[in-house]
Amino acid sequence: MIEIYKPTAARRKSPNTVTLDTSPYRDHFEFIADTVVAKHESRPQFLKTLATMIDEYQPATFVESTVVASLAVYRWRQFRFCGMFAAASASDDVSDRTALLAVLARQERHCKRLYNYTRKLLLKMLSTRVNNFADRTPPPPAAASPKKSRAAHSAATAVGKFRVLPKGKLPIAA
Fold this sequence. Notes:
- By secondary structure, this protein is mainly α.
- The chain is 60% helix and 2% strand.
- It has 6 helices and 2 strands.
- A hairpin with a 2-residue loop joins β1 and β2 (162-163).
């Protein structure tokens, strides 16, 4: 049974808590911030969004960190579309505004679907990680198949249509 991953306040305050500043993937996050944030947007605000998500999900591996960064990018794009939507709504030209609003709404829905899909994927990865660490007991040894002795093997040889079995066993048709 898969447990739902829910970060707790006690876990966030533990000495092993990963933050944006202590993450071993800080350079990767800086690169993402450089490529995602437009010139007129606030880079520190994006890094704050990313730091909040890192604090919430506590990625432990590079793959988990990349998925958390993707979540931050999708959320940032949703914020951007909301700003563009507000700016387009204030436009005076009705024909341009209608077409632009339709494109923005479609892009925002697409970004929202990507965010939700990626979040489900991340939660599944984190719950798998939690379950794997909880199940650190070694598996029981596999049962060894019993080996037949030579006497038992030779007693079960075929005689005619029937097999001669050890004493106490009924013969079966071959």
